[in-house]
Amino acid sequence: MKILLTGGAGFIGSHVAEQLISHGYEVIIIDNLISGSTTYLPQGVEFFQMDINDPSVEDVFKTVKPEIVLHLAAQTSVVHSMREPYFDFQSNTDGTVKLLQYAARYHVRQFIFSSTSAVYGEPTYLPIDEMHPIDPHSFYAVSKYAAERYIRIFAAQYGFTPTILRFSNVYGPRQNTAGEAGVVGIFILNYLKKEQCLIYGGNQTRDFIYVKDVAIACRKAIESDLSGIYNVSSSVELSIGVLNELISQQLEVNASANYMPFREGELIRSVLSNENAKKGLEWVPTFSLLEGLYETIQYIKEFQWKGVKVKN
Ligand SMILES: NC(=O)c1ccc[n+]([C@@H]2O[C@H](COP(=O)([O-])OP(=O)(O)OC[C@H]3O[C@@H](n4cnc5c(N)ncnc54)[C@H](O)[C@@H]3O)[C@@H](O)[C@H]2O)c1
After folding, report:
1. I need a labelling partner for 273 at 20 to 30 A (CA). Which of 51, 181, 207, 284 fits?
2. Residue 8 Cβ contacting ligand 1 at under 6 Å
3. pTM over 0.90
């Protein structure tokens, strides 16, 4: 089965590509490499370096004739979206609409989209399920939610299966630790550099899901061929302070952090219900937090850590 995977050279996309290749799928990747890398691409994929907004993307649909589009390419930084809302809109909403037009024209059977828990905004109850009110607080969340709505209307009009996956906080090997995302990688790198982790607050909670479990959820979305909205999360509520301690334990060093006052505007608590994905996609997270942290630490030690100067 031919899968057109956008953003397949990125953090999550490269794990999805590995997962699909190892299960016998034919994977065609479109990625402009703005934050991805060809070094992440597994053997056996077909790769097109292009922007999803590039008109030549239509040629890929025409020649490849994918049965399924798995759309992960996006501008993923909340901070950047607030600085450059139009760029964010072009990448995340405009680009998605273009892909949808091709999907309709070339008779794609299913369109799977990586959305985000950010669409829910401030939780009014926990755990957040898919019926929770939508209240995006950033341009990033708005552009993702607008894309979701376009997908549903296109799907109704052209008869393909729309599958929306809303990821919680994804972590694991290959995550970019330079931006605001990737607190797990940032903490690990700080400990390796013998620098103090900076924590604003510490009691705020998040739902961390390991990237390989997200990749499995994407494959299960293909195999189930179900329409709908599915939170992809661990459903485990973990505070940033406890995360810091767990990472230090795994690295066998004393936990240390520079605690600063909690920043107004940040979510205090967040945890998502993954019951819908368990029932519908027959997916359960298979990696414990400790397993995920262990693999992430090994990866960072082997690759990202190289060349970083150690401060004494
Ligand atoms: N990482 C998370 O915690 C998280 C949480 C919720 C949702 N998501 C979503 O998951 C998806 C993957 O995110 P990620 O964390 O792997 O980020 P990433 O930046 O590593 O991956 C995005 C990939 O898309 C490519 N890309 C970006 N804009 C493009 C464009 N216009 N045309 C073609 N390629 C483009 C990048 O080069 C990169 O390879 C995104 O849609 C993101 O919104 C991620």
Report:
1. 181
2. no
3. yes
